[in-house]
Every structure is written in structure tokens, then in C-alpha cells.
Amino acid sequence: MHPQNWKQIFILAFSLVFFCCGRVYAQSPTITGISPASGPVGLPVTITGTGFGATQGASTVSLGSMNAVVTSWSDTSVVAIVPSGASSGAFTVTVSGQGASSPTFTITALPSGWSDGDIGAVGLSGSANFANGAFTINGAGASFVSATRTPSCKDLRRNAMLRHDQALKEGLDEVAKAGLRAGT
User: Fold this and answer.
1) Dihedral of the CA atoms 136, 93, 90, 115 (nearest 10)?
2) Which of 27, 33, 73, 142 is the most buried (most CB within 10 A)?
3) Is the pTM here over 0.70, yes or no?
């Protein structure tokens, strides 16, 4: 065989290897499941699958058109919080511009008598949230006691208000006693 032919064969073989095998494709994420499949706003949801990447970086999670806050990220598992304002639908994990959708997540209402809003007097720092099947109330003011209850406690709201009122009364009593001792 002529040396010129070997050169052409080598260039052709190298070109085929380069064009066929030289491209690197980013792995698309795949979602295999979510847990739980339903719950209220604020609930952490675990999204399992593959190809999410070891760290979140610029990757995102959304439920419908609402971006979700991510609390944990690995190549096979992402934990995201059901965002306020979202509707039932699929979670989407987007990695390097490529998205994967979950089975449908159904948003459920908070138990009867509860609302997703401010509680207590304006100006006092405190919070309330529902996560992992439990309501947590962190109040402020004189001697307020934080509490966590499950939704099965029918009178939680009434009890929280009674505790707040009692703590406020006890705090005011202490202030009044201190004032009397000081001679004011």
C-alpha cells in the first residue's frame, strides 16, 4: 500500500473517532419518585432520581411556575419546600438547562381553622409554620412558650391563644409587681 493511502486512512479513522465519540453530552436528570405525594404549602418533599449532580450549583426546582427552596441536594435526592402560591402539579428539576418532571404533587389545604398568615400582635417577633405534619408556633412577648402540635389536636389554635393570653397576663403582672417594688 502506498504511504499516501495510509495517511488518508489514518485521517479518516481519526475523524470518525473524533466526530462520533468526541462529543460530550450532559446527562439529563431523571425523577423516579417523590415523597410524600401530597401536602400543604411549606412541606418538605423528597425528590428521588438520578443525574441531579453532587451539588445544586445553578440547578433549580420548581412546582408549576413557582420556584421551590431547596434544603438538601445530592446526585440522587433533592429536598424542596412546597412554595407558597403554588398549585398542584409536577415538580421540575432543571440541571444544565435540561429538566425532568415528577409525578403529580397534590397541594392540600391546612386543617380547618388554620390559616397561613401572621398570628399575634403586630410588632412582636414570632412565627408559625407547618412542616413534617406538625404545627410549630414560636411566639414573643412576656413568658411566651413555644409549642409544637400535630394537626390532630383540634383545639391547638384555641390553646395557643390561651397560652399567649396567660403568658401576657403573667408578664404584665410581673411588670406591675416590679413597678410597685421600685416605688412607681
Assistant:
1) 20
2) 73
3) no
Strand partners, 104: 90
Fold (CATH) for 30-107: Immunoglobulin-like (2.60.40)
Task: Look at the alpha carbons of 149, 86, 68, 64 in this order and tell me if their dihedral is positive or negative.
Answer: positive
Residue 75 DSSP symbol: S
Average model confidence (pLDDT) for the chain? 74
- Interior/surface letters 56-89, b for 16+ CB within 10 angstroms, e for the rest: eeebebbbbeeebebeebeeeebbbbbbeebeeb
- Taking 50 as the pLDDT cut, the residues of the chain under it are 22, 24, 151-155, 180-184
CA distance readout (Å), 55 to 24, 35, 50, 102: 20, 21, 13, 20
